[in-house]
Structure formats: C-alpha cells, structure tokens
C-alpha cells in the first residue's frame, strides 16, 4: 500500500498516549480494575494504536507522549516500534492537539489510544477521505465516538481555532466541534462511528475483542 500525499506533502499519523503509570492512567477505570490493571490496560491500548497506525502503511507515525517522552515506557516503545517520539505540550487536550498539527507541515491524522476497535482500514479510509480531490476539497475528517467525542481527527493543514472552546472529556465534544467547523467555514467529512474505552461499562465490549479477553470487568 502506497504512502498517501497531497501535492508534495506526505500524510502523517500522530498517536496520542499517556504513560501507563499506576494511579495516573485510565483513572476512570480504576474503580473497576484497580490502579495497576488500569495502567496495564493503558499500555496494551497504546501498543494496539501504534500497531494499527504502522500497519495502515499510509504515512510516518509519531507517538506523542504525556506527560513527556522521558518516561521509560515511551523510550522502550521507540526502540521496539521504531516510531518518532514527541512530548505533548499544552494546558488541555485542545492545546496539545493544536500543537501536534502545527508541528506537521502537511496533512495529519491524529488518533488516541482509547479505541481498540480501530483498524488499519479505518486509517486508510480516513486518509483517502481527507485527501479526496472533490470540488472545493476537504479540510477535515473525523471518526466520531459513540460517547459524544471522536476517536480520529484529520486535517489537511493546521486549524488552531478548531480546538478552542471545547468541553474536553464531555459528551458534547463532537457536537461542539461541528459548531466550530461551521463557524470557521471548514469542509469536513465524518466516517462511521466507533466506540472507545473510557468508563467501566466499556469493559464488557472490550473483553469480547480478540486479544483483550483478560479485561473482563
């Protein structure tokens, strides 16, 4: 599968992930899993996201780590997977995503590490949708999440204002993002939605996936 380009700029993929530190990772799942197992799940989901990004074979993959990439886990992943490493920077998720897009000269797909249902084919479809040369072009692509957020955002070029004024972590994220897209006059496409793992109720679906059976609640 060929790398995707728009003009002379190749598509790239950013994977956002937190270090799998007990007590600081997957905190909403700690009541169901405990701090240590929640951190182990964060590690497993991050490796899944990276594997999906690399198997899509559509662009260079960068792992954006939080709180920073000095964490031992990130260094080990870099050696194991051969990905680029960057530290997330910003006071909230919107600022951190805006910074990642600003660091990329060309089109970029950004995913988190919370969606075990994400497959390489989803990234290929998102890349093709973003770079589709339809009349007027597309500025953005999204895969919404069924909890009101989204599991993927792709932009042809940085759009700093897109991530401002969003109630991150709420069920209003995608709805508010649509309002921002319209206000900025951007053209976007939404692909079929997926589910992610944020709350204890999500563990039932997670444990039904191949490779995740040990995470039954």
TrEMBL record:
Xref: Gene3D superfamilies: Spore Coat Polysaccharide Biosynthesis Protein SpsA, Chain A
InterPro entries: Nucleotide-diphossugar_trans, Trfase_1_rSAM/seldom-assoc
Sections of the chain in a coiled coil: none
SUPFAM superfamilies per the UniProt record, alphabetical: Nucleotide-diphospho-sugar transferases
Descriptive protein name: TIGR04282 family arsenosugar biosynthesis glycosyltransferase
């Amino acid at each position: 599968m060929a790398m995707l380009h728009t003009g002379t700029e190749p598509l790239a993929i950013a994977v956002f992930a937190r270090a799998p530190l007990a007590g600081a990772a997957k905190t909403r799942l700690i009541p169901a899993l405990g701090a240590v197992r929640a951190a182990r799940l964060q590690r497993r989901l991050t490796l899944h996201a990276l594997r999906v990004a690399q198997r899509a074979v559509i662009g260079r993959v960068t792992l954006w780590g939080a709180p920073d990439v000095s964490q031992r886990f990130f260094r080990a992943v870099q050696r194991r997977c051969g990905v680029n490493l960057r530290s997330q920077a910003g006071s909230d998720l919107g600022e951190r995503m805006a910074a990642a897009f600003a660091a990329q000269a060309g089109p970029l797909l950004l995913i988190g590490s919370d969606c075990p249902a994400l497959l390489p084919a989803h990234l290929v479809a998102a890349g093709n949708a973003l770079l589709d040369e339809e009349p007027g072009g597309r500025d953005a692509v999204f895969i919404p999440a069924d909890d009101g957020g989204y599991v993927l955002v792709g932009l042809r070029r940085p759009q700093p204002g897109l991530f401002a004024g969003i109630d991150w972590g709420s069920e209003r994220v995608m709805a508010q993002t649509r309002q921002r897209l319209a206000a900025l006059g951007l053209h976007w496409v939404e692909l079929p939605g997926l589910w992610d793992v944020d709350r204890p109720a999500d563990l039932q679906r997670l444990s039904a996936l191949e490779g995740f059976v040990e995470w039954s609640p």
